Amino acid sequence: MQIRTKLIFQHVGDTWIAVPADESESGFNGMLTLNDVGHDIVEMLTTDTTTEQIVDHLLEDYDADRPTVQKCVEQILEQLTQARLL
Amino acid sequence: MEKFRGVKEWMSKAETDVFFALLRSALGSTEPVPATLQWDRVMYAFEQHALLGVVADAIMSLPESDRPNMGMQMKMLKHVGRLAQAHHRFDQTVCMIFEALTSKGLHPVMLKGQGLATLYPKQHTRSCGDIDLYLHPEEFEQGARIIFDLCGDDRDVIVGDRRIVHHVEANYGDIHIEIHFLPGTSIYESNCDEYERWMTEQFRKTDSVIINGREIAVPNHHANVIYVFCHLLRHFMGSGIGVRQFVDLILLIKSQPIDVKALERDLRRFHLVEPWQAIGGVLVYQLGMKKEEFPLWDEERAEYLQGKNLKFIVSGGNFGRLQRNNDLYKEHDKHSLRGFFDAITYRWEEWMFYNLQFRYHLIPYENKWRAWDSFMFLAKIAINRICKLGQN
Question: Nearest-CA distance from B52 to chain A in Å?
Fold first, then answer.
């Protein structure tokens, strides 16, 4: 799976924001506000990837157990789907 | 885009201190930022000075208890998001135009905006209004025709009166493009021609910045510093200045070493040393530049734009006087046309007063046009007064 539109990321303080480069193409005219974990997940989704690959990548970088990470990833994927970005 | 509107009073001294402390923090200072409860005024001021994106990182790096409320934070983040989108489109457009022009053997030079944005700690946080391109005189007509064609504009390329306009305009979608056939003018009538000739020659020697992986020509550093400074000065003495222009200048000065002797020679040639030293006070005292980093530092002249003169700059905003007056008008005098005109003309006269004062103090005595400049500005005030009487 992959995010449908090109996103631009901007790091502001401890927050990441992501906006579509071209709103008219994406049909998404909102903004994602993300923490570091959210940013890592969304950035991975800018190329074709799987849930498992995302979870494995996060487990390398963060001190958390697999079920917790899995749940976190699924929540964000759900939100991205609702926003019609996936 | 959501705005920080509805602010009824301008910033107090304490809030102005927070304003500049945050700016210094955004420019790399590690000094602590004083806390404020009046975020609405401070945020409004940043917006009016086209600096909200620049300070967003510094604001979001404050301890959570010192930040503005969540609603304001979200407005600010949306603003940053919009700026990032705008830069993305502007950068693409700049590259497309340069490709079109250079492929035909032309040598465009990008002025101000997107070139200066590359100097910012986070370049996509500088506000962007339009794209300014300069084309050499012998390439102007062909280059402007190419840009018009890209913009789907079938107008003829007509160069207007050189004393009034310096560019022709085109629109690529919603992006405004100014194609300059003159590099700009001096603030003095007496040396406009000399300044134009000098700058025209200078713009043949270019530096470059990288945008989207492509080299984009910008004026050479020495010329760019003088050009950006003169542009700042023209805004200061004419259409209204935003603190963002001071930020542009400080980042430009710091970006590369400056040949101070050459700078002094050329500033002196155009009678600009004194105004340069006055502007230096804002860069050092307010924006945190070290005195030794500012070329031609002068302690006495640097004091000129402090106190009430600084307050006047801060309460002006980026082209912002009318905007602010309009807001005050909306707040206080919603149904009176006269109130509207009063708000504008009052502010304009105040501006002219400061303008005149600035000229009187800082235009060098050897400039034979000093008296003429002052006379012209007095005449404008008089005309304004007559027009106002006519409205009444």
Answer: 12
For residue B37, give the DSSP letter: S
B78 → closest Cβ in A8, A21, A31: A31
Question: What is the number of alpha carbons within 13 Å of residue B256 lying toward its C-beta?
Answer: 14
Q: Which of A58-62, B181-185, B221-225 has the highest mean pLDDT?
A: B221-225
Dihedral angle sign, alpha carbons of residues B94, B49, A14, B119: positive
**Contact call for A31 and B81, based on CB within 8 A:** yes
Q: How far is B104 from chain A (nearest CA, A)?
A: 29
Q: Count Cβ–Cβ pairs < 8 Å, chain A vs chain B.
A: 44
Mean pLDDT rounded to a whole number for chain B: 81
ipTM of the complex as predicted: 0.84
Do B81 and A13 make contact, defined as CB atoms within 8 angstroms? no
Longest dimension (CA), chain B: 59
Nearest residue in chain B measured CA to CA from A7: B85
Place of tokens 């980026």: B318
| B33 DSSP 8-state letter | P
All residues of chain B having their beta carbon less than 8 Å from the beta carbon of residue A12 are 56-57, 60, 77, 80
The dihedral over CA atoms of A46, A51, A55, A58, expressed in degrees to the nearest 10, equals 10
Express each pLDDT in B182-215 by its tens digit: 887 777 666 777 888 899 999 999 999 999 999 9
Q: Distance from B122 to chain A by nearest Cα, in Å?
A: 9
* B85 to A13: CB separation less than 8 angstroms, yes or no: no
Q: B212 and chain A: CB distance < 8 Å anywhere?
A: no
Residues in chain A, overall count: 86
- Which of B85, B93, B116 lies closest to B175, judged by CA? B93
For A69-73, the CB contacts below 8 A with 24+ separation are: A72/A37, A72/A41, A73/A41
Q: Which helix (H) or strand (E) holds B210?
A: strand B206-211
> Do residues A37 and A54 lie in contact, with contact meaning Cβ atoms separated by under 8 Å?
no
Q: What is the pTM of this model?
A: 0.83
Looking from the CA of B331 toward its CB, the CA atoms found within 13 Å total: 12
Q: Which of A61-75, B151-165, B191-205, B270-284 has the lowest mean pLDDT?
A: B151-165
Contact B81 A10 (CB under 8 A): yes
Neighbours of B214 (CB within 10 A): 15
Contacts of residue B101, Cβ cutoff 8 Å, sequence gap at least 6: B107, B108, B135, B143, B146, B147
User: Measured between CA atoms, how close is B240 to chain A, in angstroms?
Assistant: 29
